Amino acid sequence: MAMPKSFLRRAILLALMALPSFASAEEQEIRRCDFKLKRGCIAGYATVTLARGTLARVEALVIWCGPGGHRKSLDYSCTIDSSRDDKASAWSQDGGATLIANGSPWNPDEPDRVKVTVGRDVSIDFDEAQSLGRCGAGAELPRAIVIPAHKAACRVWLKTP
Asked: Which of 142, 141, 136 is nearest to 157 (CA)?
């Protein structure tokens, strides 16, 4: 039994229309790493989403142990979750880095921004990010997290006391 020509044409047209969506899905890259530090009983992860090589989203979670230094329900955490299309942040370029400014900083008189540099590795610099408003009591953002190019644990630098 032969297929009608109109059916075959429609099938080919639908297949061709689907190609761009497959291509764009392939152009999205997610880089992630996890970490667990003995010093300070700290754990967490960092994730960036790249769309055609450009930073589209950054997410980080840092969990600090609660009182007593053991993991339990009294842990404190810091969270960063921002994407280019959200209304809570302002994204800009600074040379080869993306600056993500918090639209509602805890202290409006101080800078509250994250600097992300994408290269072989991805560097997330929290040096000018305010911990207040993002972290529970007893927790703070690290100075930086680096997501290695090859699947490995994050490299994390804590702020010196």
From this structure: 142
Phi, psi of 2 (to 5 degrees): -85, 145
Q: What does the block give as tokens for 131?
A: 């911990």
CA gap 85, 140 in Å, rounded: 26
Cβ neighbours of 135 (radius 10 Å): 19
Task: Give the pLDDT confidence of 113-145 residue by residue, as tens digits.
Answer: 999 999 999 999 999 999 998 998 878 999 999
Under a CB-based contact definition with an 8 Å cutoff, are residues 80 and 134 in contact? yes
Determine contact, residues 130/113, Cβ cutoff 8 Å: no
- Is 17 in a helix, a strand, or coil? helix
pTM over 0.85: no
Residues 158/40, Cβ–Cβ less than 8 Å: yes
Which pair of structure tokens corresponds to residue 61?
Answer: 């979670």
- Start-to-end CA distance of the chain, whole Å, equals 79
